[in-house]
Amino acid sequence: MRHKFLIILTFFIAISCKENSTSSENEPQNQANLFKVTVNAIVKKNDDFCLLYTEDNSLNFNDGIWKEVKGSENLQPVEFYFPNEVFPSQLRMDLGKNSEQEDIIIKSIKFEYLGNVREIRGPEIGVFFRADDSKCTFDSATGTIKALSKDGKKSASLYPNETILAQELPKLAK
Known about the structure:
seven-stranded antiparallel β-sheet, alpha+beta, 12 strands
């Protein structure tokens, strides 16, 4: 009888540990110490976004954070948590690779670090970011991004207005 009890107890402990490790793998630890960017957008079809970054003020974007986005007619936050001890100096947003994606509307972008917050909304987004004209158009008055079709493929990218981001992002670390 005692043997059965130990087997059942071991089984429940193993399941409990597995559930705990799965949930913690998907959520960053010590979120308050991580640089975070939240893009509040309307994205109508499922897609994958990538927030690329540099730490040396260059535009050589080699590092990025991918985020799966579920399609919705409603405004939704798309959150990017940076790796521990990474503080970006420049950011580029690659807004999907779904060739059937409709226009994307960005309402705001929020930068957070160590309790400091800088949120940009509406036309101010156009002060911080510009369209990659070979991939999309960006109407900063409405936040509407229209991907251009090239060889049957559609993608949209917003590049930084380098001098603005280089001035504003370090203010979050103070």
